[in-house]
């Protein structure tokens, strides 16, 4: 058990390693490659970390240091090769794929660098999407999505599609979608990387507000300002923590 672990932990990550298999493997796509064999890559190596309710943890490190891989593990999008990740008390490796999907839907909000919005859906429908999967009735979904869009300053954009929105507006839609289920955990991968300063600041205040409502937040970033909202910052180099 890590010393940082407390009963309040939303995430407990113990000695986690994630190795991506190299090419030259049995899959057809690997055998068809013409770039020769690639060795297996250990993207994250022996990382331990815990995150409490309402705590904001920043992850810094150069490109390729394992930030996105670690975030995928913490968000239960992926499972470790070694070690354990528990999210809200559930060891992610013990869950079936379907159970992990359910865990993400109910407990985890995810914000990607490039928004990942559905291009054919309005801002409101994008934000409401998790509620569709949770079986919330339509009128309630709409009202809730509109309230959230209002809170991120997009009340006048609810019926716009992503293409009709600026990058910063799209990212605010993505944040609203991640928060609509009031998740215990919000995971954000370079969420301000592509935004102007004012929009970046706005996204960061939404995160701070969510943390004040007890959401645990893990945020990978190169952006000093983003790391400044964190209660603690961990540093990755070649997949391992170097912050002691
Ligand atoms: P960061 O987000 O810090 O840039 P990543 O977690 O994306 O780092 O990548 C860490 C290492 O793992 C890099 O060497 C990268 O090339 C490798 N990697 C990431 N994803 C995959 C994958 N799906 N398959 C093989 N190697 C990967
Ligand atoms: Mg990354």
TrEMBL record:
A GO molecular-function annotation: ATP binding
Keywords annotated in UniProt: ATP-binding, Nucleotide-binding, Transport
Residue ranges of every copy of the ABC transporter domain listed in the record: 26-242
CDD domains: ABC_MJ0796_LolCDE_FtsE (cd03255)
Superkingdom classification of source: Archaea
UniProt cross-references to Pfam families, sorted A to Z: ABC_tran
InterPro entries in UniProt: AAA+_ATPase, ABC_transporter-like_ATP-bd, ABC_transporter-like_CS, ABC_transpr_LolD-like, MacB-like_ATP-bd, P-loop_NTPase
Gene3D superfamilies the record matches: P-loop containing nucleotide triphosphate hydrolases
PANTHER family the UniProt entry points to: IMPORT ATP-BINDING PROTEIN
Protein name per Swiss-Prot or TrEMBL: ABC transporter ATP-binding protein
């Amino acid at each position: 058990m890590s010393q940082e672990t407390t009963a309040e932990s939303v995430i407990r990550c113990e000695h986690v390693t994630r190795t991506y298999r190299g090419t030259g493997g049995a899959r057809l796509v690997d055998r068809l490659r013409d770039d020769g064999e690639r060795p297996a890559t250990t993207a994250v190596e022996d990382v331990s970390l815990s995150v409490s309710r309402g705590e904001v943890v920043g992850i810094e490190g150069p490109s390729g240091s394992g930030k996105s891989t670690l975030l995928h593990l913490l968000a239960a999008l992926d499972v470790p090769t070694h070690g354990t990740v528990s999210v809200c008390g559930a060891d992610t490796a013990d869950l079936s794929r379907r159970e992990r999907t359910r865990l993400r839907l109910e407990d985890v909000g995810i914000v990607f660098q490039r928004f990942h919005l559905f291009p054919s859906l309005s801002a409101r429908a994008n934000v409401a999407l998790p509620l569709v999967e949770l079986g919330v009735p339509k009128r309630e979904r709409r009202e809730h999505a509109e309230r959230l869009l209002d809170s991120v300053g997009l009340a006048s954009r609810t019926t716009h599609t992503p293409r009709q929105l600026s990058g910063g507006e799209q990212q605010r839609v993505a944040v609203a979608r991640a928060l609509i289920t009031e998740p215990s955990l919000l995971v954000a991968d370079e969420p301000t990387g592509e935004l102007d300063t004012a929009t970046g600041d706005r996204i960061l205040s939404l995160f701070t507000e969510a943390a004040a409502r007890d959401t645990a937040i893990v945020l990978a970033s190169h952006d000093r300002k983003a790391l400044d909202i964190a209660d603690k910052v961990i540093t990755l180099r070649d997949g391992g923590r170097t912050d002691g």
